[in-house]
Amino acid sequence: MTALGVYKSLTSRGPMPALTLYGSPAGAPRLELSGKVVANHAAKAANYLADDLMIDQGSLLRLDLPVHWRLLTWGLGGFLAGAHVSFEEGDTTITATPEEATGDEIIAVSLGALDLSWRGELPARVTDGNAEVLSQADILLDEYNHAESNADAFTTSIDVQDPRILLVNPDPDTLLRTFMSAMQSGQTLVVADNSTEAQAAATEGSTRIN
Fold first, then answer.
1. How many independent structural domains does the chain possess?
2. How would you write the pLDDT of the chain (210 residues) with one tens digit per residue?
């Protein structure tokens, strides 16, 4: 599996759903994102990291984000930019709690479903990730950076062959691994927390895998 393979799998879906999220993972009661939309957000993140921030390929990128759709687009974007994604350490940190973050570069991400910028003031030297990606191209500008990433370490076995699979209350690492694998195989990933599991299962007709 490669990050570029996942990205191309998403773009090939076009308007067909790739992610459906409920509750806290959505930042809204329910949010459905098409393959094209997920790919666009990941490409914007990758273009920003590689071209504007100019991170070194193979450098550590820390994802300090909770279970949320933006974790997935920034994670895939990091892979596409050639970063080694980590949940524990990094030269660059992407975070929803910038006042607590450490790193040479700190990128703040607001978790409202459609937030276009950070709400409120940011600490000095912290970049507004939501705002910065808005001006980036919707398509991936460099298809070669991904080769230096550690995307191949973020995979998992999905035994269920159903087209829609349900992941309930995962940790961030499990979410990213399942997302990468499900997108590669062309499945739609439904994500819910404990309070929205029943609604997600009934509405989406999805099969729980955890």
1. 1
2. 799 999 999 999 999 999 999 998 998 899 999 999 999 999 999 999 999 999 999 999 999 999 999 999 999 999 999 999 999 999 999 999 999 998 899 999 999 888 999 988 999 899 999 999 999 999 999 999 999 999 999 999 998 889 999 999 999 999 999 999 999 999 999 999 999 999 999 999 999 998
CATH number at residue 133: 3.40.50.12780
**How far is it, in rounded angstroms, from Cα 150 to Cα 50?**
16
Which residues span the domain enclosing 188? 3-208
Phi, psi (rounded to 5 degrees) for 198:
-60, -45
Burial class (CB in 10 A: 0-12, 13-18, 19+), 92: buried
Enter the pTM of the model. 0.96
DSSP track, the chain: --HHHHHHHHHHHTTSEEEEEESTTTTSSEEEEEHHHHHHHHHHHHHIIIIIS-PPTT-EEEEE--SSHHHHHHHHHHHHTT-EEESS--SEEEES-GGG--SSEEEE---STT--S-SS---TTEEEHHHHHHTS-SS-S-SSGGGGS-GGGS--------SEEEEES--HHHHHHHHHHHHHHTPEEEEE-GGGHHHHHHHH--EE--
